[in-house]
Amino acid sequence: MDQKDLLEKIKYDAKDLPIPDSLQPDSIEKLLQENSRSRSTDTTDFERAAKRRQLRRRWLRFGSAAAVFALTGALLWQSSRIEKYQKTEEAQEMQMTAETKEARQPDQTDAEKIKAAPAASEAFTYAESPKAIYEALYEQFCSQTPEAYAATSMARTELLQSAADVESAIEDTSYTAPADATGTDFSQTNLQELGVDEGDIVKTDGEYIYILRTDLSLAIAQIRQGRASLLGVTPLGAGDNGYAHEMYLEGDCLYIITSESVTSLEQDEDVYYTSTGRQTMLLTYDVSDPGAPVQKGAIAQEGSYAASRKNDGFIYLFTSYSPDIRDTFEDSTIMPRINQTELSAGDIYLPDSMESTSYLVISSMKTDAPDEIFDSKALVSGASHYYVSPENIYIANERYDASSVLTEITKFHYADGEITGVAAGCVPGYLNNSFSMNEYNGKLRVVSTYTDNKAASVSDSSGASVKAAVDQEEYNALYILDEAMKQIGAIEDLAKGETIRSARFSGDTGYFVTFEQTDPLFCVDLSDPEHPQLVGELKVSGFSSYLHFYGEDRLLGIGYEADPETGSIEGLKLSMFDISDPADIKEIHRTVIPGITWCPAIEDHKAILADAKKNVIGFYCDNRYLVFSYDETEGFTSELVYDFYSDMLVNQAEYNTMRGLYIDDTLYLAGDTFLISFDMKKDFEKTDVIKISKET
Question: Helix (H, G, I), strand (E, B), or coil: what is residue 299?
Fold first, then answer.
């Protein structure tokens, strides 16, 4: 369930309940927007974004409380269960007294918590049986007061899932395929890692353009000598409640990921009820005849779609599954199903600590066996960020307590379709996004923002000396974890009061940007993993939300210009950094487009076309598609500002429903309802507009 759906559910369930003004759905929605749209038009939103940690705490508190009100009606039928956990006012007062005394004790520092963490081999274990999973989940999440249960199972779990859903900016370098056997030059999806393919809504092989549309259909256009012709639109048959996510192209096959709601009839003793859950589908289509695609396989995996990757002839599918936990094991639904078969308990990992009841389910499918699951594993807990290297899968999950946050990272190895749990570890703080993780030579490098809870000794009412937090400033750090996920190197206490906005890694060098009023670009030497060194720092106004290696010794930054005194956003900014000397990084060129204070496309790496060989930088912004080129002498040049209004395509283009791509010397804008062509050799002259009918 994404944030919008969560808000709608809260509004519906709470419509007849008296909710305080501070917990009204609109107030919560405003808070969510402050948190998720850190690049809004209001200056104060950027000030709040710079204190993202505090906003997250507020949402966890207020969001959980709102969920309690919203779920009160739904929990009435469980009155017999609720009575079992209700406390008298006297018991509650005793509990509060005990909690107050406990709160006076000095907190563990983040370093102490990490040191006390279990060894990698103990961090997670295979489940012994479905009942063992049920008992672990019930004990940690359900054997509480009904209020705590409601807050945990709804607000906390759904929030972590939605965090994964909105996760958009991932990691490392883009990839442009070499010319094919016919000499055709064409762009590819902007990838996380070389060799690890990612799905997207538009794919091309240089001869055809495939467009995955939001109305659950597939449009295919043929390209000949720079001219496009629509061959047809094929419905995918996922139903009215379905959603098309992304697809992969390999040879004559398309692998399309969709999801839909599935409702079933359940029985609890003598009571029948309907249960609705999300199911993710991986559909295989033979497109050897592009005018008549034929479905040749399908895999169904329970849970909401989270992510996917493709490597060495296998597709790895990630879904988030929420079990139905009831008073008894017999009445609960614990095990996720894949192709109607329950996952084995021996393939489910139970971590030492769990932040939510949801499972992350990972399955592999061999591309030449489109109806079969090759292997499956699951991790019990929420997932905030995903990073996949050519050999390993890393799942990051934030764990909050009263004074700080830790990010727990679970590592799975994958090879030839087999998935194996390897180790788990943690770092202080929270991650900006998946750009914040990178693997090199078996080591995981992580950049995070953490709160330094400095403490001073004070006396309590009895005169005893206790520690109290006096400083909660945010800092940034880089951590290096070995193959067993144990910390072996670190650089801490960077950029006080700022937060990480972007990161990039290349071999033994890492770059990351922090921001409050100015934009420090840090360069770190990682050649000695146990002793990483900060070798360069450049401060410029504004900040980069996205970093991209652009040719030799050049780093492209796309983000925002800001007032160096106040930090208020003044426009969209493109920067080119000279990184030939890591100790002396220079911003050699910049261009600023005034008045643009939020451009969501630059938060999604797949929505950015950045190709140094072709010398093209393109992305959607404010109902326009912008294209730039770069010259070592002249800097950035605006090549195209295409306004979708000009072809009556207003409200038909968004960064998440269209892509810019090129084939030879033609730029194409491919979306739900259009395919537009521009001649790159003739100053991006528009050559054709094909409108794709909504009717299939």
Answer: strand
